[in-house]
Amino acid sequence: MTMRIAIVGAGPAGLFLARLIKKTMPETHVEVFEQNPRDATYGFGVTLAGAARARLGEVDPEVQARLEEAMVFNSTQAIVLDDESILLKYAGAGGAIERLNLLTILERLCEEVGVTPRYETRVDSKSDLTVRGLPSELGDYDLIVGADGANSEVRAMMGSGFRMTTRTLGNHFAWYGVGKALSPNALVFRHYEGGVFIAHYYAYTANMSTFVAECDADTWTRCGLDKMTDAERKALMEEIFSPELEGETLLENKSIWRQFTAQVAEDWSCGNAVLIGDALRVAHFSIGSGTRLAMDDALALHDALAGCEGDIPAALAAYEADRRPNRDLFTKATVKSFEWYENIAVRMQTDVASFAHDFLTRTGRVDDKRLERYAPEFYRDHVAPRLEREAAVGGRRG
């Protein structure tokens, strides 16, 4: 029996999953539904670390090759605390790519194996429903994959079937672009007129950068951002971070100031619907791994389907059993990361080296031993001397 699979959402996860399924199981009928027009995207650049690209190469070398051809790579990052800065040199290079280019490349790779996404096709919970409780567009599919992001309509179709937990954070943020490849990539933490502000930026082409601006909840009201328009907030960010922008203005693309809502689906599937990517668990931007996690979800679901011999319930159980442990660990790390940022005013009351160490170890996934491999020069210059001093003090006390 030929499986019929509907993938809702033509983001990185949905397109990658569609290609993998059609490439390895060509008899499977795969449709991708996307509510937005072709070539529409929101945001600027996204990142894919070396480990993520290596996994792509193991599974689909063509995907890895084409994405890397369009990427820019960087192995350094400046941490700036007011007037102090420290340059981190990482052992591996991170890659960044324009989001629209990423989607265009994956779309072409899908078309090469016989899958053409259906753009401007909205599948939502308000559609005319069939007797199966699904929109008419999806009633005849054996499997429905929600790859449609944080505001997933596939989740909404199932009501409370996925048992969502949500938490709205206190910090406010907005995504911008800059018409220049800012160098080096950086995280800037700055006190300004009684508030604390953060800029996180990285180049994703030879002449463009992503620029995320953020402030904590107290700053939002103390500095009057709650009463400003988005245009006024943008102007304020250009003033605060003028040393980094060097005369450049911030570019907008749905650059609305908002608070982050952390969402986690406790159930990974409901009936014949399953979630991947941000539809399943939203990755906070401070982790910088949303695209990687989404594509890894797609890979795990593909592998489960490839081994199920048409048994959809067995495939969904295998997908969750394989992927949940990793996702649980990453969710815990994500919470630690965004809570670190939620308390940024307290964290900033130190010197830049101590602050950088606190930043690098904030999730609990990187300890001093791993840091020696991850950022060897920083470990040599700042961590090892501290550990030696602490050992010497301990020896004298002994």
TrEMBL record:
GO terms for molecular function: FAD binding; oxidoreductase activity. InterPro entries: FAD-bd, FAD/NAD-bd_sf, PheA/TfdB_FAD_monoxygenase. The keyword Oxidoreductase applies. Keywords: NAD, Oxidoreductase. Residues 142-326 form the FAD-binding domain. SUPFAM superfamilies: FAD/NAD(P)-binding domain. PANTHER family: 3-(3-HYDROXY-PHENYL)PROPIONATE/3-HYDROXYCINNAMIC ACID HYDROXYLASE (PTHR43476), BLR0106 PROTEIN (PTHR43476:SF4). This is 2-polyprenyl-6-methoxyphenol hydroxylase. It comes from Marinovum algicola.
